[in-house]
């Protein structure tokens, strides 16, 4: 993997693999995903050792993350073998159709083609080379080119070797999985007409730049970017247990998580002394790379220097001889007026172990305040006592959270995203460029497009739409004659 790679050759290989890979059966493709998962597990000690050295993340964290990555591949394998994700629909020809004769129509979701995935820095396994976007695109039947993150180049190379080798041994086409490096290579490939979709996890600035490139191509393509989120949390009370959980969520992985709670709203007058003690017990943690360390230090200075801020935990920042930054949690508190008056200094995401506790006096004002300050987030959270959740007084706030967030939590903390069919990991802009999900089985549909076949002979239909149904996938059939019963279920 070098920065003088032949990008034209990479795009050509991905394009050549596109049709053969799309035609692989769900069972064969699922077996290939399982083979990748097995290969990652078998190489885990080596990969984790490299990741610890390059990212500074702890062994326990990386072990869990790699396990999540391999089991996500297995979940996606079962999803595609089931076949429901194809949404195969068959309308039988009906000369008596009530609004005019209906031809034989058959629709399904098909792979969009080669996908370019820009890997993330903060999840060297789960959102990187073999992570969610790559897994979803492969499951959909799309060749994948990964643009490696500069924060873990050796790990990217080795992981790509493992993935590509497993796919090759499973009989998948050559060119179905490739790795490139270098910012300019990534930009050049995103502009290449043979790339049909893009995915990204990273900063708002870079993500928006790439999204604009994807949209401004002669033939625009979908671009699924996860850009940033401050994940506000609203509490109707604040006891020591809640505050301890808050600090743990803020400081986990040194706050370098896209779901870290950047703001906690608590009622006026609550005792916040527990925050200082909880934060003081957290050991320093290395940030992912020098660039992130410098950005965090500057962001921390901006927050600490804002008017009206009261420091609950000063935290510390240390830079070693290699330029790596180590930090402990910084937590400050402000009132609602200070937050709104100093929004430019306070509202921006702090990527690292820093969060703001906001004291409020009027619970009824929270829905409008939330909508004004936080128009798009991955998550929003509500902590309330059982008796408060049992009535409807909090309904306006919950509605505001749902309108502006991809995931609404009741209790708990947003860090820790379960890989499961019902997960939504996406949200309104600026959390993501397109309000889809990059986690869970619904992530596969981002890399599919609907195609209808009208009056097609059986021999020329895709397997999922044939009457014989050789892939044995679920088919939704609309038989002739049913249109005369329309509306009967609504009476």
From TrEMBL:
SUPFAM superfamilies: ALDH-like. The keyword Oxidoreductase applies. This is Aldehyde dehydrogenase (NADP(+)). The keyword DNA damage does not apply. Residues 475-491 have a biased composition (Polar residues). Keywords: Oxidoreductase. It holds the Pfam family Aldedh. It comes from the Bacteria. Residues 4-363 form the Aldehyde dehydrogenase domain. It comes from Microbacterium bandirmense. The lineage of its organism: Bacteria, Bacillati, Actinomycetota, Actinomycetes, Micrococcales. Residues 471-491 are annotated as: Disordered.
């Amino acid at each position: 993997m070098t920065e003088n790679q032949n990008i034209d050759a990479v795009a050509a290989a991905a394009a050549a693999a596109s049709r053969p890979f799309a035609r692989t059966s769900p069972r064969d493709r699922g077996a290939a995903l399982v083979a990748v998962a097995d290969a990652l597990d078998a190489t885990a000690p080596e990969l984790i050792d490299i990741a610890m050295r390059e990212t500074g993340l702890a062994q326990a964290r990386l072990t869990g993350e790699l396990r999540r990555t391999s089991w996500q591949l297995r979940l996606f394998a079962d999803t595609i073998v089931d076949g429901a994700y194809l949404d195969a629909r068959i309308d039988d020809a009906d000369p008596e159709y009530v609004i005019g004769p209906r031809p034989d129509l058959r629709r399904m979701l098909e792979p969009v083609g080669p996908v370019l995935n820009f890997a993330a820095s903060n999840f060297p396994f789960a959102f990187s080379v073999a992570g969610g976007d790559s897994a979803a695109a492969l499951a959909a039947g799309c060749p994948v080119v990964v643009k490696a993150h500069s924060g873990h180049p050796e790990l990217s190379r080795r992981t790509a070797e493992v993935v590509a080798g497993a796919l090759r041994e499973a009989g998948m086409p050559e060119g179905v999985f490739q790795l490139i490096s270098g910012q300019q290579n990534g930009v050049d490939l995103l502009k290449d007409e043979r790339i049909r979709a893009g995915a990204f996890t990273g900063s708002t600035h870079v993500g928006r730049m790439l999204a604009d490139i994807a949209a401004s191509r002669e033939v625009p393509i979908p671009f699924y970017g996860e850009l940033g989120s401050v994940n506000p949390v609203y509490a109707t009370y604040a006891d020591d247990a809640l505050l301890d959980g808050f600090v743990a969520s803020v400081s986990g992985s040194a706050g370098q998580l896209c779901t870290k709670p950047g703001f906690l709203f608590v009622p006026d007058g609550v005792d916040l002394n527990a925050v200082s003690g909880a934060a003081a017990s957290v050991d320093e943690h290395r940030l992912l790379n020098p660039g992130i360390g410098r950005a965090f230090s500057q962001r921390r200075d901006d927050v600490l220097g804002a008017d009206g801020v009261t420091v609950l935990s000063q935290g510390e920042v240390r830079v070693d001889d290699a330029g790596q930054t180590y930090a402990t949690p910084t937590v400050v508190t402000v009132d609602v007026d200070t937050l709104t008056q100093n929004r430019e200094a306070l509202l921006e995401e702090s990527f690292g172990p820093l969060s703001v506790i906001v004291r409020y006096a009027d619970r009824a004002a929270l829905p409008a305040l939330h909508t004004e300050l936080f128009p798009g987030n991955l998550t929003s959270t509500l902590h309330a006592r059982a008796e408060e959740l049992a009535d409807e007084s909090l309904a306006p706030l919950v509605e505001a959270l749902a309108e502006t967030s991809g995931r609404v939590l009741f209790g708990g903390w947003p860090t820790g995203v379960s890989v499961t069919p019902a997960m939504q990991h996406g949200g309104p802009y600026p959390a993501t460029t397109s309000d889809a999900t990059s986690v869970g089985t619904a992530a596969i549909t981002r890399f599919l497009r609907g195609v209808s076949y009208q009056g097609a002979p059986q021999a020329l239909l895709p397997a999922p739409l044939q009457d014989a149904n050789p892939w044995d996938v679920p088919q939704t059939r609309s038989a002739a004659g049913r249109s005369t019963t329309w509306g009967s279920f609504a009476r």
